[in-house]
Specification:
356 residues, alpha+beta, Immunoglobulin-like, five-stranded mixed β-sheet, 41% strand, Secreted protein
């Protein structure tokens, strides 16, 4: 029978041996359960190995290079010459799950699985050329340009375009927001027909950093008031236009049906944050993008600000009084908008930040 101290030493030995073994090396690529394609690396580090051998599905890939400098492992191994790597075409095996094994000086160091997919549908694609654009990557407002690389059998990033807004990619949220640039006639009916006229300047397109409203565009109404904004809301899949008023705000939730027409809904937003019923609305583009400040000044005459404010208040009060009754024909949208009030409020906050 072991003495008490012997059992204690044995327990410590059993506890520390696996940790020491685990710290002696690590397979970094491919990661467990990862999806791999194209020509890449089998790579990692080992403190003492003079020879690293790799196999996939029991077939040896040969020896990898060893001893490359890995300064991040010096505190573990006592020296930095621990890296190993082996170039491998992940397109070679049939698409599916595979087992990779790595041996360090003949001893099994790691076993794990990965899934392969052929990046061009074949083990090696020759003579192909293709360029694609990834909007709002690596951040909102940027566009990554990727070109096909025959040597790597995959797409590689060859350029990052920073237009400041991402508007160059029409499929990005910023690109979709930019579609609002220009002048619009907004018609809606609450018993009577009402019309608002808005103009948005392409140069005012701004990146917000918000995940749902990553960009907004600023504009003005027919009175020359700079209190209008628009944005593409990713959670809605539609465009929002907000006109801040004196007694209430006006909000439009729209979808493009042609490049010069949007269909959707008009709502009023009250001081307590609540929204009115929705009323069918149609927006028609009346002019191409113009300079915001120049066009606004042309719409205003001296001493008109107070008159415009009173006129706007009168219109808003009339709309509020009639908001409970509608004979408008509803557009083909379901009334399941996810928390529209909160999205409109967020657009208002972003607009005020951008304006200042």
């Amino acid at each position: 029978m072991l003495r008490r101290i012997d059992r204690k030493r044995l327990a410590c030995s059993l506890f520390f041996t696996p940790l020491a073994a685990a710290a002696s090396g690590y397979l970094e690529n491919p990661q467990p359960g990862s999806i791999e394609s194209g020509i890449g690396l089998v790579s990692g580090w080992h403190c003492t190995a003079k020879e690293i051998v790799v196999s996939v599905d029991g077939v040896s890939l040969g020896k990898s290079g060893v001893g490359s400098i890995r300064n991040d492992t010096e505190s573990i191994c006592g020296h930095p010459n621990t890296g190993f790597s082996l170039l491998y075409n992940y397109n070679i095996p049939q698409p599916g799950t595979h087992v990779i094994r790595v041996y360090a000086d003949g001893a099994l160091m790691e076993t794990r699985t990965f899934t392969s997919i052929r990046s061009a549908g074949v083990p090696f694609m020759s003579g192909a050329n293709k360029r694609i654009e990834a909007g709002d990557f690596p951040q909102v407002g940027s566009t990554a340009i990727l070109d096909w690389s025959q040597a790597k059998q995959s797409f590689v990033v060859t350029e990052i375009r920073t237009s400041g807004s991402g508007a160059s990619d029409p499929e990005s949220a910023c690109g979709k927001t930019a579609l609002l640039a220009g002048s619009w006639k907004m018609d809606f009916t609450i018993i009577s027909k009402f019309t608002e006229n808005y103009s948005f300047d392409a140069d005012s397109l701004a990146v917000t950093g918000d995940s749902d409203l990553p960009c907004l565009i600023l504009g003005y109404d027919s009175y020359g008031n700079f209190d209008v904004s628009g944005a593409y809301a990713s959670s809605l899949g539609r465009w929002l236009i907000l006109d801040e008023g004196i007694s209430m705000d006006e909000a439009f939730e729209m979808s493009f049906t042609t490049s010069s027409r949007m269909d959707g809904f008009y709502r009023q937003r009250y001081s307590d944050g609540s929204l009115s019923s929705r009323y069918a609305a149609v927006a028609t583009r009346t002019a191409a993008p113009l300079n915001l400040e120049t066009q606004s000044l042309s719409n205003m005459d001296a001493g008109s600000a107070e008159k415009n404010a009173l006129s706007e208040m009168s219109v808003m009060d009339t709309l509020k009084a009639k908001a409970a009754s509608t004979v408008s024909k509803q557009a083909d949208f379901s009334d399941d908008t996810p928390d529209l009030g909160a999205i409109v409020e967020r657009l208002q906050e972003l607009t005020r930040s951008a304006a200042h």
